[in-house]
Amino acid sequence: MQIRVIRGLPFCISVFFRALSWQFVATPFAASKKIRVNPCDPWQPCRRQNLRSKYFRFYSCEFVAKKPQSGPPWLNFTTETFVMDAFVKSSFHNGITSIEFFHPQSNSLPGRILDELAQAIHAAGNDEATKVVLIRSFGDKAFCAGASFDELAAIRSKEEGLKFFSGFAQVINAMRICPKLIIGRIHGKCVGGGVGLAAAVDYAIATDAAEVKLSELAVGIGPFVVGPVVERKIGNSAFSQLAIDATRWRSAEWARKRGLYAELYNTVEDMDEAISRLAYLLVQSSPEAMAELKKVFWQGTEHWDQLLVERAAISGRLVLSDFTRNAIESFKKK
To answer: In terms of Cα–Cα distance, which of 148, 97, 163, 159 is closest to 124?
Structure first.
């Protein structure tokens, strides 16, 4: 970090006014959907540049508010708000590749995000410098809301349905065949495909807020694609309970007792400390031994390339039913 010291009363006064809105501009990873920007902030360009890394992109940036300027030039400032849209970001540090995703609708998973997640996981798996992979989502609320209802409602044919649900299959299979161990940072609620992501990591560390629900049956389909990976992690009985009682939230402690989460913490800070400890421990471990160990963990899933596509076809057919379409529209209105 570079620290610049500039003497003079005008600068001190401007810093004072900038500090009044600090909560809006200090690190976007503490925000959710909107970030306040002060264009006169001398450090703001640096913060903007820090957002950029491999696989990161803004799909849209909309300015929705502006404060008029007044007073002396050195006191003039405007505050603007832009809305973040979906992204997948991959960053590397000290042998750890962190893959982060975001969608403004509770980190749901449209087809484009699924495609980029699968690509990022494959890239991390093929990167010799990467020793361990971390999967996380942006924000401090939901970890992942599963399938995008907007895209579900837009499906008009079995082929389109197969293509969309195959995106979940591609992500799960990418995690399955990745030779690097994958840690999951589960900070909030998981629904549908989000439960599948949590189950597909090799070691999930979560907070007490990370409740789970498989809601697919409530909208006329079923957890067909994520079913195998969830069942593998928590067993057939617990998977059946989630799949059948599709409107009921299960606590994070329920999920930990059944093996979905390896560790559970009261606060995000404690969770992140545990993740750092494990990640840096794994960085010091033998890459060859970890790769062989992962093969053992996933033994018996070699047929999933075909199985998950077959399951995607089932969901792709059911999503076209009148029951499902009506259910999706009802959920979207809530």
So the answer is: 97
Q: What is the pTM of this model?
A: 0.77
Alpha-carbon span 309 to 292, nearest angstrom:
26
Three-state SS sequence of 33-77: CEEEECCCCCCHHHHHHHCCCCCCCCCCEEECCCCCCCCCHHHCC
> Once rounded to an integer, what is the mean pLDDT over residues 310-318?
97
d(CA 8, CA 236): 69
75 pLDDT band, cuts 50/70/90, is: very low
CA distances to 134, 226, 229, 310 from 304, in Å: 23, 11, 10, 9
pLDDT on residue 86: 93
Do residues 124 and 99 lie in contact, with contact meaning Cβ atoms separated by under 8 Å? Answer: yes
- Helix or strand holding residue 241 (H, E): helix 236-244
Residue 26 backbone phi and psi in degrees, to 5: -75, 115
Could you tell me the two tokens for 10? Answer: 């005008």
Which helix or strand (DSSP H or E) is residue 81 part of? strand 80-84
What span, in angstroms and rounded, lies between the C-alpha atoms of 206 and 16?
Answer: 38
Q: What is the distance, to the nearest Å, from the Cα of residue 305 to the centroid of all Cα atoms in its chain?
A: 23
| CB 99 within 8 Å of CB 89 | yes
For the packed helices 227-234 and 193-200, what is the interaxial angle rounded to 10 degrees? Answer: 50
Among 50-54, 72-76, 103-107, 206-210, where is mean pLDDT lowest? Answer: 50-54
Q: Give me the chain's average pLDDT, please.
A: 82
